[in-house]
Amino acid sequence: MYGSVINLRNYCFDRGLISPVKAKVPIISIGNLAVGGTGKTPFTLMLARMMQELHIPLSLLSSGYGRTSKGEICIVSQGKVRPEITPDESGDEVYMHALTGLYDTVIAHSPKYKSIDHFTTPVLIDDGFQHRKLFRDIDIVLVSTKDLHDRLLPFGRMREPLASLIRADIIVCTDNTSKKEFEPYMKANALFCRTISVMKEPYALSEYASSVHDYTHCDILEPVMAVAGIANPERFLDSLTKNGITVQHHHWLKDHVQYTQSLIEELCNEAKAHSCTTIVITSKDAVKMQEYSSLCASHGIRVIGIPVFFECIEGKQELLSTITTVCSSFIQTI
């Protein structure tokens, strides 16, 4: 039933029975075929930094998944984060984007296309592959080896079949799967890129806001307890162990979890029960845990944020060239 609905919807768009909304600015969509945990957020941040280096101003449009607010909410206006907006109101991932200072405007709204007229710069659409009501100038889809062998919802984690990759302009593989595995599903002129995740300098939770641009090194006292409220916490654990960090214990929470005082106290007590005086967390969790840094300290627990960035190791120059071509009229001269 799910597959039939997806196929019918795509058929209507492919045949022009439903017309997408065209924006006045370039739209670059970053999405995937599967549900959660594919690296859309780190890839979007990588792309935003690349565009900043190219002197291309940009904005971000997201649904703000997991947020407590309804309707449209503007988190960043004219390059500044609105101080009255909280991470819970905007959504943790969107707020993390907002703190980077990379965007002129950041808006959360569902459906996304209803907010498109607010933007005056090129726009990155977070999780946009299935949002076909909005026309995009570049369609980027992240894939991994899991996508080759999984099934459609509700029996698997796939929102669309592999055949949908035919719509993508750029395929980004987030592991070491061969390009040949995906070629049967790609259109002839699609670009293939590959990324790896790289752990950056750890930072104290209390310094999160000032650490977004220039991470101040913070020593990690092992052993540690790892805490993550993300879709794929095993990827976080893998990054820690690959970088030589001894994880004594871990506690995985649901994606987009809302932290409370009682939950923080529970985590601190759990860490002490496993002889850990340090809790390491993802940058996504740091957005919401920052207000509890003093509470953690009162329990004798240090909380360290571990930023994990994406780096493009294959197809980078072609990716930059494609972005530059589409956004050429917005490039700023220095």
What does this structure look like?
By secondary structure, the protein is an alpha/beta fold. It has 2 domains: about 1-60 and about 120-195 and about 310-330, Rossmann fold; about 200-305, Rossmann fold (3-Layer(aba) Sandwich). About 25% of the residues lie in helices and about 20% in strands. It has 10 helices and 15 strands. The protein has a 10-stranded mixed beta sheet. β11 (about 225-230), α6 (about 235-240) and β12 (about 245-250) form a beta-alpha-beta unit. α4 (about 90-100) packs across α8. The chain is globular, with a radius of gyration of 20 Å.
List the helices and strands and how they pair.
Layout: H1 2-14, E1 27-32, H2 40-53, E2 59-62, E3 73-77, E4 80-81, H3 87-90, H4 92-99, E5 106-108, E6 123-126, E7 138-143, E8 170-173, H5 179-182, E9 191-199, E10 203-204, E11 224-228, H6 233-242, E12 247-252, H7 261-273, E13 278-282, H8 283-289, H9 293-298, E14 302-306, E15 308-314, H10 316-326
Parallel strand pairs: 1-6, 1-7, 2-5, 2-6, 7-8, 8-9, 11-12, 11-13, 13-14
Antiparallel strand pairs: 3-4, 3-5, 9-15, 10-14
Helix pairs in contact: 4-8
* SS content category: alpha/beta
What percentage of the residues does DSSP assign to strands (E)? 15-25%
**What is the domain total for the residues?**
2
Stretches where pLDDT is under 50 for at least 5 consecutive residues are none
Fraction of residues in H or I helices: 25-40%
Question: Distance N terminus to C terminus?
Answer: 54 Å
Query: How are helices and strands ordered from N to C?
Result: HEHEEEHHEEEEHEEEHEHEHHEEH
CATH class assignment of the largest domain: Alpha Beta
Task: Let me know the largest β-sheet.
Answer: 10 strands, mixed
Q: Any guess at the CATH architecture of the largest domain?
A: 3-Layer(aba) Sandwich
Which value, in Å, is the CA radius of gyration?
20 Å
Number of strands: 15
